[in-house]
Amino acid sequence: MNAAANAAAARPLVAVLSGAGLSTDSGLRDYRGPQGLWRDDPTAQRMVTIADYLADPEVRRRAWRMRLETGVLDAQPNVAHRALAAYERTGLPIRVLTQNVDGLHQLGGVSPRKVLELHGTARRVQCVRCKVRGAMADALARVRAGEADPPCPACGGVLKPATVLFGEHLDPQVLGQARVVAAACDVLLAVGTTLQVHPAAGLVDIALAGGARVIVVNADPTPYDDPAAEVVREPIGTSVPALLRRLALEAGVAWPSDDV
User: Fold this and answer.
1) Yes or no: is domain 29-71+121-163 CATH 3.20.20.100?
2) Taking Cα atoms as reference points, which of 214, 225, 248, 232 lies closest to residue 84?
3) What's the CATH number of domain 8-27+77-119+170-252, 1.25.40.20, 3.10.290.10, 3.40.50.1220, 3.40.50.300?
4) Could you tell me whether strands 120-127 and 159-163 are parallel, antiparallel, or unpaired per DSSP bridges?
5) Is 198 a known active-site residue?
6) What confidence tens digit (pLDDT) does each residue in 243-252 have?
7) Active-site residue, selected from the candidate residues 81, 105, 119, 169
8) Tens digit of pLDDT for each residue in 92-106?
């Protein structure tokens, strides 16, 4: 093995598949956990189902009220988000494949070009008719001003968050890029995800097929616990920074001194 190959082997690519559990310490509720939104109110799933959203104005009005109440735009990155950014600052290769739509990876300091948002972003809205996009903050301002179901300002069509709702397909380009990363990674860290939603969960299969070391960090069992090299049940806020420090140490790289 030549020097270049040795250097590459010492710099393993870490892919992080993140789910809602990673953002709960930022005050955002997950969906399927013990205190998950859908356990409290199973009908809430209608608000993120495209057929119901388009067919029923009351579902849309309720969805807009929920967006105001949950405060997704007010949430701040937590220690796990910041630890991922610190890992990137070591210079080691990392990619984030996130099922989350909150944008907290980027706000936490991870380079946007290294984040693939599998399910889109709640920080933007999109018209289902003309496809024009705009800022979620602007749409929410209209709701606060009294528009219970604000239409598209360009064509009057239905506005939805720029997220993938149930019944919609993932962006094939984003999914394709995520599959390439999963196939190429040396370590796949699945954090705060039940690994029950496909095709995102299938990225673990791709990583396993490529020989990656899979580490599952989740409070509850997942379908991938058995083939995983390691399963961690400790709280994400403490376990993820510790795991990332360990991975950096294994690669012979010091943890950044500016980490908080």
Assistant:
1) no
2) 248
3) 3.40.50.1220
4) antiparallel
5) no
6) 999 999 999 9
7) 119
8) 999 999 999 999 999
